[in-house]
Amino acid sequence: MSKTSSSGGRRGQPGKVRVKTARGRSNASTRWLQRQLNDPYVREAKAQGYRSRAAFKLKELDEKFGLLRGAKRVVDLGAAPGGWVQVVRETIPQARVVGIDLLEMDPVEGAEILQMDFLADEAPDALAGALGGPADLVLSDMAANTIGHKQTDHLRTMALVETALDFAVQHLADGGAFVAKVLAGGADNQLVGELKRRFKTVKHVKPPASRKGSSEWYVVAQGFKGAG
């Protein structure tokens, strides 16, 4: 799979595709389908063999922060459908890559995928065993299912971020990095304080591949100081 710049050189906009409302399809489904058909990142992901447009989010974050450079062990929490695992394998094929997701996911050559709930008590040990040593990078693209209530959705997603951070603190190598999806407004003050205590730098960023109308942002923490 070839790489493209996040500037979007090959992702030009052709004529807009309009989707007619079909019998049995709701207006919301029609709008989703029209958005997919007109999304240049969706088209480019398909052209390059990526499983989702989310692959470009990690590529853009890596371009900005050098997350994958020199990483030997990488964990992807909430890995399905596998776009981020594909990017990691493509960029650092020599690295040990372990993904986990409750959903079934097609294999990615050279990566180990665990189908289990990350929140299950046995999940951290299973991930650690598959890694075979401290992780250099812990990625989390997990988000709780939204119910449309902004405050509740934010709290549920933050609970996942906190759980992912707890795993990272226990399993990151010194100097490692942690990346997690958060919602608009970023991580709350308590979580940011914990991140700053554990890492040398903490940034909030919205990669270009994130849809403009989406509430998602990412927190990028680098330079892990150790679990002590």
Automatic annotation (TrEMBL):
It holds the Pfam family FtsJ. Coiled coil: none annotated. Residues 50-224 form the Ribosomal RNA methyltransferase FtsJ domain. The keyword S-adenosyl-L-methionine applies. It catalyses: uridine(2552) in 23S rRNA + S-adenosyl-L-methionine = 2'-O-methyluridine(2552) in 23S rRNA + S-adenosyl-L-homocysteine + H(+). It comes from the Bacteria. Its EC number is 2.1.1.166. SUPFAM superfamilies: S-adenosyl-L-methionine-dependent methyltransferases. The keyword Cytoplasm applies. Keywords: Cytoplasm, Methyltransferase, rRNA processing, S-adenosyl-L-methionine, Transferase. It is an enzyme of class 2 (transferase). Residues 1-29 are annotated as: Disordered. Gene3D superfamilies: Vaccinia Virus protein VP39. It is found in: Cytoplasm. The active site is at residue 181. GO terms for cellular component: cytoplasm. S-adenosyl-L-methionine binds at residues 82, 84, 101, 117, 141. One of its GO terms (molecular function) is rRNA (uridine-2'-O-)-methyltransferase activity. Belongs to the class I-like SAM-binding methyltransferase superfamily. RNA methyltransferase RlmE family. HAMAP family: RNA_methyltr_E. Specifically methylates the uridine in position 2552 of 23S rRNA at the 2'-O position of the ribose in the fully assembled 50S ribosomal subunit. This is Ribosomal RNA large subunit methyltransferase E. It comes from Pacificimonas flava.
